[in-house]
Amino acid sequence: MSKRTWTLTIAGAIALIAGLSLYSQRGNRPAAAEDPSGNLSFRILLGVNDRASNGWDGSISVTPGRITRIRGWRFTAADSAGANSWKAATRQSPGKKGKAGPILENGVIVTASAEQSARFQARTAQGDFSFQASEIPYGQPKPFLEGRALVDRVPVVSRLTQSDEEQDFPAIAHSGDNAWLGYVEFTHGDREVEARRQFDQEPKSFDFLARPAGGDQVFLMRYSKSQMRWSAPMAVSAPRQDVMRTAVAVDGQNRVWVFWSAGKNGNFDIYAKSYDGSRWGQELRLTEDAGTDVNPVAATDAQGRVWVAWQAFRNGSLDILAAAQNGEGFTAETVVSNSKASDWDASIAAAQNGEVAVSWDTYDKGDYDVYFRRMRWRDGGIRMDAPVPVAAGQNFEARSSIAYDARNRLWAAYEASDVRWGKDFGAYETTGVALYQNHNLRVKCFDGGKAFEASADVQEALPGGEAAPIRRRAARAQGSLPNPELFKLRPPSGTPQPPALPMNSFPRLAADPGGLLYLSFRAPVPGRSPLGTVWMQHLVYLDGAEWKGPVQIPNTDDLLDGRAALAAIAPGQLLLVASSDHRQTSAQRRRAAAAAAANDDDGMQSDLYAASFQFDAGTRAPQLKPAAAEPVAKPDTESAAERAQIALIRGYRAQAGSARLQLMRGEFHRHTEVSGDGGRDGPLIDAYRYLIDGASMDWGGCCDHDNGNGREYSWWIEQKLTDAYKLGTSYVPMFSYERSVRYPEGHRNVVMARRGVRPLPRLPKVADEAPPAPAPDTQMLYKYLRQFDGIVAMHTSGTNMGTDWRDNDPILEPAVEIYQGDRQNYEMPGGPRSNNENDSIGGWRPLGFVSLALQKGYRLAFQASSDHISTHMSYCNLWVTAPTREAIMEAFHKRRVYGATDNILADFRSGEHFMGEEFSVSQPPSFSVKLWGTDNFAKVYIIRDGEYVYTAQPRSRKVDFTWRDANAPKGKTSYYYVRGEQADGEIVWVSPMWITVQ
Predict the structure, then answer these.
(1) Of 305, 550, 300, nearest to 404 (Cα)?
(2) How many other β-carbons are positioned within 10 Å of the β-carbon of residue 851?
(3) Taking Cα atoms as reference points, which of 224, 243, 221, 246 lies closest to residue 171?
(4) For 672-769, where are the E strands, in sequence order?
(5) What is the pLDDT of residue 616?
(6) For residue 156, which of 566, 615, 553 has the smallest C-alpha distance?
(7) Angle at Cα 775 formed by Cα 774 and Cα 778, nearest 5°?
């Protein structure tokens, strides 16, 4: 092919992406149509390694050709771009907690209609430079101006959606001339009352916080290569639904099948609908089981039969199921995974030889492993081969993506982390690995029964540990995880800091007919946004013996879990669609405009963008080498012991009066990517992986600051997952968020049993040293909780996030976070793992000790939570009458709660009375203490009114004793509670009883 013909082909292909038919719908704001031309895009980073703010105003020209568009890379409100020029400067980036961050490079994305031989001339306030297009292929950036400017090639990116609503969760299928894009659109509720994060005065009613949301609707768009445009979106599902992702495939009759998971009447099921180019078929419901069915994926086999796979809750565990098209409908569900433990993240692919494969990851042996199964349609049904392990060591190996190449070889990419993922990591122990530490990607190839891997290591092309620009990707991080000694290195008032290891996640794989293999993934980039960490989509590709890249893809700035949709639409041509919430640039510009208008609405929404890559048609076929057989490792030696501990706790029953009680181990509060300060907490879905699998919780509260800074869309996502992962009685999630008001009022974690209530905005807080009168904001919070049947628990009470205990409502605030794995113990001065003046993570506020609240007469049960990063050392254990949301709330109200740092069983009572109760006696009270530990108990204390009144040194794992307080003070109400300390440092705090001796 001549260079001229090749260039025209690129221009035509890119024009298809950029030539959008922008659509209108309810709530759209006016949108300027983008220039449909342009076949080359380059990112020009300006001010690389600037030590001070500098002006980088400039212009650019191309000969021959023309500049078609200039966009900002990290623009703020002070920057702008014109047709051929820009005004931009480097400046300090936003830092954590209101502090200024480092100076980061600014830049522009320049798109042009030009040939590879064209020369670009850039002129800037700091100097001029030029480059030829052919000099900068994908993944090979070039420095200029002594390294102060850096140019790399990026795909041509065009915006697909312009609505004020939220478009997300893309899925794509390619067939012939068309690529079909399915996605989910969320419609907001009443915007007049949205995004008010602070009140001037208390509202007369909180009803607006329970207003209906607009809900989800599935849409479909068609991209035609020959017509060079995207169609207007077509509605697939009915509006106002509750959708968990979509999938798209095209059958042998050229009918497009769209699949989605929708929650109706309290259960999520899989639905499907076909489109023949002019008419929609009837909506089909593919699942009927009472268990949740979510996250479909789809593919079409060589005979034109559509296959669909998904995650489902069946027979007490999460499984991967599949069904195949059979005429106008689909077969009954078939179980693909073969474990009694949780199975996650199905991926599906089809080969030209008629084979179909489904991959997934399983927690079968107490860590995540990746498997796949080949299957075919035979004798009128689905026939499957035995599962094949892709990765089955003791490491975290999960989130696979698979694709067949033109030679019917199956490629599998997956995400890997270290051993003991989700196990003990926190301020006082680091024998495990937290949820988002050292995540990187692996790729394997399977040709029949033989396994191969590329001759080059894909990790050499991936970004390193720090959120660094492309120029520093080769820097390899030092250190490894887990590191049991790491906690010893934490500075006073600091938390353990793991080494700067890679943070590459959510691989997506595609293979094109010409032999190229594409691997896209999410990774952080430098700087922060008003929404917190910025993650972007990246791409590397396998060209013969070399992995090339990475390429950062513009307009893919969003959360960590932003899974792109990929389609190899021709040899060397890749179409990638991803979501962006504009956090890197538009968030700052819009926030500035909103502030100027005295409006708290940050104007954020999620949109879809299409990125088009054109690679050299002369690329080489992958070079492979044999891979070692994948043995299935033995389970971690501690996993069997933990299963026995959990079985003991779940099987134990206690009688409290007429109530027969069982224990539910759980987690009151942890953060995820959704929090502005959650950059190291990992994706939202991993909170559920951890709660369901890593810690085997029975209940959980998830998750973030106001469910994402009070934004309705992130609130909707968190509420949705709370329902989608309600797994019968096996795991019961609660509706939860953190409401953060600094000292002296305090951060509080809210828990509710009902869906649909938004976080409560704030009233101005009282001054730090204000007299200890009730805080107006906290009193308003209690009214809100009373209306919506919620509770709260104070959080990190002895820090700058804590309180001087000026407020308490015994009904609405029945528990306190006595211990937090990310920080410390706030029980009393001098307690185990307690903060002190010289070592207080989060600030030192001694008026926040729980002992002072109890001294004031507050009735508070004890619970422990993880908060940020920490895993597997904070448990909120509830004695419930049944494993339901309603019974969980009842347990809190009755204070049948205790906190622990390990799987410790505690039964504490006095006669017929149980922990948490308040009662009177006529004789000195007698106590029964039963503890089952994970190590020998070194000491067990009974504490009355803040004083140690009984101490035992059992030196055994099981503690069972009674004690009578012969010196119980008469005529006053005293509180009694139990603390147990194991020889290995693990602790249990058993909630008080309040006893009056008459």
Answers:
(1) 300
(2) 17
(3) 246
(4) 699-702, 732-739, 748-752
(5) 82
(6) 553
(7) 110
| Beta bridge mates, 665 | 877
The C-alpha atoms of residue 618 and residue 88 are separated, in whole angstroms, by 38
The DSSP code sequence of 793-822 is EE-STTSTTS--S----TTT--EEEEEETT
**Closest listed residue to residue 989, CA positions, set 815, 802, 810, 746:** 815
Segment (H or E) for 706? helix 706-709
Write the DSSP assignment of 479-539 as a string of letters. --S--TTGGGGPPTT---------B-EEEEEEE-TTS-EEEEEEEEEEEEETTEEEEEEEE
Local structure of 962: helix, strand or coil: strand
pLDDT single digits (tens) 829-866: 999 999 999 999 999 999 999 999 999 999 999 999 99
Two tokens, residue 38? 């342009």
Exposure string over 254-279, b if 16+ CB within 10 A, otherwise e: ebbbbbbbbbeeebbbbbbbbbeeee
Q: Between β-strands 284-285 and 624-626, what pairing exists: parallel, antiparallel or unpaired? A: unpaired
Give buried/exposed letters for 356-372 (b at 16+ CB in 10 A, else e).
Answer: bbbbbbbbbbbbbbbbb
| CA atoms lying within 13 Å on the CB side of residue 208 | 14
Q: Which among 48, 189, 25 is positioned nearest to 712, based on CA atoms?
A: 189
The span from the first CA to the last CA of the chain, in angstroms, equals 99
Phi-psi region of 881 (alpha: psi -120 to 50; beta: other; left: phi over 0): alpha
Tell me how crowded residue 8 is: count the other CB atoms within 10 A of its CB. 13
Closest CA to 650 of 639, 637, 661: 661
H-only helix segments in 36-142: none
Comparing CA positions, the residue from 570, 582, 586, 588 lying closest to residue 609 is 582
Spell out the residues 6+ positions from residue 365 whose beta carbon is closer than 8 angstroms to its own.
341, 632, 633, 634, 635, 639
Tell me whether strands 897-900 and 973-982 are parallel, antiparallel or unpaired.
Answer: unpaired
* C-beta of residue 41 within 8 angstroms of C-beta of residue 55: no
Rounded CA separation 12/18 (Å): 10
The whole-angstrom separation of Cα 734 and Cα 751 is: 7
* Spatial separation of the C-alpha atoms in residues 690 and 423, rounded to whole Å: 9
Long-range contacts for 142-147 (Cβ within 8 Å, ≥24 apart)?
143/48, 143/471, 147/48, 147/49
Q: Whole-model pTM above 0.85?
A: yes
Angle ∠(450,456,460) on CA atoms, nearest 5: 130
Please list the rounded mean pLDDT of every run of 10 residues in the chain (998 residues).
34 36 36 57 97 96 97 92 96 76 93 96 98 96 97 96 94 96 97 81 96 97 87 97 98 98 95 97 97 98 98 97 97 97 98 98 97 96 97 98 97 98 98 97 97 95 65 53 96 95 97 94 91 95 94 97 96 96 72 44 80 83 92 93 97 95 96 96 98 98 93 96 97 98 98 97 96 97 98 98 98 98 98 98 98 98 98 98 98 98 98 97 97 98 98 98 97 97 98 97
Both tokens of 283, joined, read: 């909506």
Peptide bond into 64 cis (omega under 30): yes
778 Cβ contact list (under 8 Å, min separation 6): 741, 745, 746, 748, 806, 807
Task: Provide the edge-to-edge strand list for the sheet that holds 450-454.
Answer: 395-404, 410-419, 440-447, 450-454, 624-626
Burial of 204 (0-12, 13-18, 19+ CB in 10 A): exposed
Using CB atoms within 10 Å of the CB of residue 920, give its burial: 0 to 12 exposed, 13 to 18 middle, 19+ buried: exposed
CB 66 within 8 A of CB 120: no
CB atoms within 10 A of CB 947: 10
Reported as half-sphere exposure (CB side, CA atoms, 13 A), residue 62 has a value of 26
